[in-house]
Description:
Elements: E1 18-26, E2 32-36, E3 39-43, E4 51-59, E5 63-73, H1 99-116, E6 124-125, E7 139-146, E8 152-157, E9 164-166, H2 178-191, E10 205-212, E11 219-225, H3 233-243, E12 247-254, E13 266-272, E14 276-280, E15 283-287, H4 297-311, E16 318-322, H5 330-334, E17 339-344, H6 347-359, E18 365-369, H7 372-375, E19 385-388, H8 397-406, E20 410-415, H9 418-428, E21 434-442, E22 452-459
Parallel strand pairs: 3-5, 6-21, 11-12, 16-17, 16-19, 17-18, 19-20
Antiparallel strand pairs: 1-2, 1-4, 2-3, 4-5, 7-8, 7-10, 8-9, 10-11, 12-13, 14-15, 20-22, 21-22
Helix pairs in contact: 1-9
Amino acid sequence: MATQNLVGTDSQWQQGALVEVAIADLSDSGDGVGRVGQRVVFVPDTVTGDRAVVRLLRVKPQYAQGRVHELLEPSPHRIRPRCIVADKCGGCQWQHVSDDYQQMVKRNLVVQALERIGGFASVAVAPMLAGATLGYRNKATYPVRRSPTGQVQAGYYQKGSHQLINLNQCPIQDERLNPLLAEVKQDIQTRGWGIYDEAKHRGKVRHLALRIGRRTGEMLLTLVVNEGNLDGLELQAQTWLERYSGLVGVLLNINSDRTNVIFGRETQCLAGQPYLREEFANLSFQIRPETFFQVNTEMAERLLACVVTELDLQGDEVVLDAYSGVGTLTLPLAKAAKQVIGLELQPEAVQQAAVNAALNQLTNVTFRQGTVESLLPELDFQPDIVVLDPPRKGCASGAIAALRTLQPQRIAYMSCNPATLARDLKLLCADGLYTLGRVQPADLFPQTAHVECVAFLTRTAPLAG
C-alpha cells in the first residue's frame, strides 16, 4: 500500500492522512508510540515492534493520534486477545500484548517516571511482582443503556467513544460474576424498568455494580439508579438473592446528580445484608458496594507483604497510615506495631474501618476523619513511620509540606500513578531530607497500562528540633 511520506512536508501532516509508522514504545496511557520524521504518533491497539499503516485522526503541530489502518508486520510481543471484543471494548488496553512484555513495560514506566519527573539518577526498582492475568478483578461496574432496538445492555464503552459495548462475560473479572452480568440485564428487561438516558438526564437504571469476596465467595449486586421507585424491585431483589448461591446482598444506590461519578450518597439494602465479608492478610473485612478496596486481592496481599517485610516492625513503633480507607493497610500493620493511627477523608470509610478493627479485635488502632493535609499538622504524637496510599492525583502539596515538617524516620509510599509518585518523592527528598531506597512495582491491573508500586524512604538527617 502506498503511504504518504510526511517527513518535512507540513502540508501532508493533516487529519485523515495515511502514514507508515514503526511502533517503538508504549505510553503510560497504553498507546503505541512511533515517529514520522520528528513528530510523535500515538496509536492504540499496537505494541512495540509493530509496523503499521496508520490513519491520522487528531493532528497537532508536534504530535498526532491515529488508528491502525493496516498491520504490515506484527510485533513478536503481539498475541491473540483472550477477549472476543478486545478490539472494541475500552475496558482493557493491552489484551493484544503478551503478559511478560506488559510487565516489563510497566516496570520501565516506573523507572522512567522516577528518572524524568523525580530526577533520581539511580533507583533500585525491583523486578515486577506478577500473578494471574485473567479473572482477577473482584469488582466490576457497568453502565446500563438501551440499544436502538430496545434491548437492555450493560458493558464498557468503546475505545475513544461513548458507545456501549454489550457484554455477557468479561475475562478479567472473577468468573463467578459472569452469570449475574448476563442474566440481570434480562431481568431488568422483563421488569420493564426505565433505563437512564445520559443526554436527557432521564430514566432510572444507570449502572450495574458487582462485587465478590475472592476468599469467601460472597457477592453483592447493586443497582445504581437516577430515582428509586422501580415496580417490583423488592420482589426481584429477593429473587436474585435466592437464585445465586453466593449472593449475600442486593442494594440500591440512588444517584440523581448529572455526573460521571458512579455512586450517589444514599444506598439502601433491598435484600440480605449491605456488605460482603472478605479475608485479606489473615484478617476479616466488611466491604460495601462503594468501599475502596483493591480490585486484585491476591496481588494486593503480595504488595502488602512486601511492605511488612521492608518495614520489619519490632512491636514498639508508632505508625501513621494516611489515606487509610477501610483499614486495608492499617489493620495488618497494627498486628505488628505498637500503635497505628489512620487518617481518612470519607466518614463512611472511617466508620467501616472501625468496624473492621473491632471484627479483628485490634485495640491498638484508631482512625481520624479529615483531609491528610489538615490532620497532619494537628498530630499530638510523633510517628516513627508514615504509610501513604493516596489517590491517583497523589498527595496534596500541604500534605507533603506537613510531612517534611513532621520528619518521620521512614515513609512507605504506595501509588497507582508513577508520575505523581515521582513528583511527590522528589519533593520529599528535596535538600537531602530523605533517601529513596527500594521501589517495588506490582502488576495489580493486567491487560491495562496501570501499575501499582511502593517506594521506601529513610530520613537522612537527624530529626530536626
